């Protein structure tokens, strides 16, 4: 899939070939829904808390006598049926995160990218760079490109002037390539990628069979690989063995290799 590359002045500067394995897969709404639910559940703080009847700072004395009043039998003022009492079955602090496999997450991101490419909402620019950090200048450049609501994805890190100029725009989000995610892609109308971001996303999301092979660990031609080699032998000269008090002191691993020339007889 080929797409035109523009610059920030809305001028065509070339084309780029998009990998169909990343930008041309079948869009599956069920996968997108699963990934978005997983993202939103994972970002919840889970700090909600209410007080139960055991945590209310209120008297526990009996309200009135058991019989003779014609009213219902009650003891403490802490139950949930009274105003100011505790809450029954209320929320407690917990983790809302769920599990989602890496393959499903990667497929969801490929589906989100393919959805923008299929709808014509994908814009590729050569680089993101401004001479000065002015929001008005960036808004003018985006208007030339016909962009009002967009997620802008740069390479490793966004240029400083772009980051400063875009942080005051409520409908413009700026992320590095490693931070691209399904929720942020779908919540904005247009997806803007730099050529560096395209390369990084393709390298990250290509199926395992299409990724470049890893470099070998050892170089066989130079002899730097130590695979199959055993430990180097240890040689201990007999004249360098330290003695103490007339007795030969050697390591247990080499004791069998050292034989004294003249062995003294044991005293009777």
Which whole number gives the mean pLDDT?
A: 83
Whole-angstrom Rg: 36 Å
Assign a percent range to the helix content. 25-40%
User: Spatial order of the strands in the main sheet?
Assistant: 2-1-3-6-4-5
What would CATH call the class of the domain at 2-46 and 98-210?
Answer: Alpha Beta
Any idea what the CATH architecture of the domain at 2-46 and 98-210 is?
3-Layer(aba) Sandwich
Task: Describe the protein's architecture and organization.
The protein is α/β, with parallel strands linked by helices. The chain contains seven helices and eight strands; from the N terminus they run ββαααβαβαβαβαββ. Helix 5 links the parallel strand 4 and strand 5. The chain is elongated, with a radius of gyration of 36 Å.
Keywords:
alpha/beta, six-stranded mixed sheet, two-stranded antiparallel ribbon, 7 helices
Secondary structure topology:
Blueprint: E1 2-6, E2 12-17, H1 20-23, H2 29-42, H3 102-118, E3 122-125, H4 135-144, E4 150-153, H5 160-166, E5 172-175, H6 182-187, E6 190-194, H7 195-205, E7 243-244, E8 247-248
Parallel strand pairs: 1-3, 3-6, 4-5, 4-6
Antiparallel strand pairs: 1-2, 7-8
Summarize the structure.
With 268 residues, this protein is of the alpha/beta class. The protein has 7 helices and 8 strands, in the order E-E-H-H-H-E-H-E-H-E-H-E-H-E-E.
């Amino acid at each position: 899939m080929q797409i035109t590359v523009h610059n920030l002045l809305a001028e065509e500067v070339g084309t780029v070939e998009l990998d169909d394995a990343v930008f041309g897969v079948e869009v599956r709404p069920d996968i997108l829904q699963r990934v978005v639910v997983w993202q939103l559940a994972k970002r919840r703080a889970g700090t909600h808390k209410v007080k139960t009847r055991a945590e209310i700072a209120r008297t526990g004395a009996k309200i009135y006598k058991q019989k003779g009043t014609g009213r219902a039998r009650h003891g403490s003022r802490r139950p949930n049926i009274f105003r100011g009492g505790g809450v029954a079955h209320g929320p407690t602090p917990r983790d809302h995160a769920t599990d989602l496999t890496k393959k499903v997450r990667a497929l969801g991101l490929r589906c989100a990218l393919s959805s923008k490419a299929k709808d014509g909402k994908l814009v590729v620019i050569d680089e993101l760079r401004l001479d000065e950090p002015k929001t008005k200048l960036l808004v003018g450049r985006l208007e030339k490109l016909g962009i009002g609501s967009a997620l802008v994805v740069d390479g490793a890190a966004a240029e400083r002037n772009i980051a400063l100029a875009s942080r005051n725009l409520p409908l413009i989000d700026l992320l590095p390539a490693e931070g691209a995610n399904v929720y942020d892609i779908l919540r904005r109308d247009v997806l803007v990628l730099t050529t560096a971001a395209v390369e990084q996303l393709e390298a990250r999301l290509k199926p395992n069979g299409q990724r470049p092979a890893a470099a070998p660990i050892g170089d066989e031609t130079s002899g730097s690989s130590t695979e199959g080699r055993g430990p180097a032998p240890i040689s201990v000269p007999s004249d360098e063995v330290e003695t103490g008090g007339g007795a030969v002191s050697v390591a247990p691993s080499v004791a069998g290799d050292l034989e004294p020339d003249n062995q003294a007889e044991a005293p009777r």
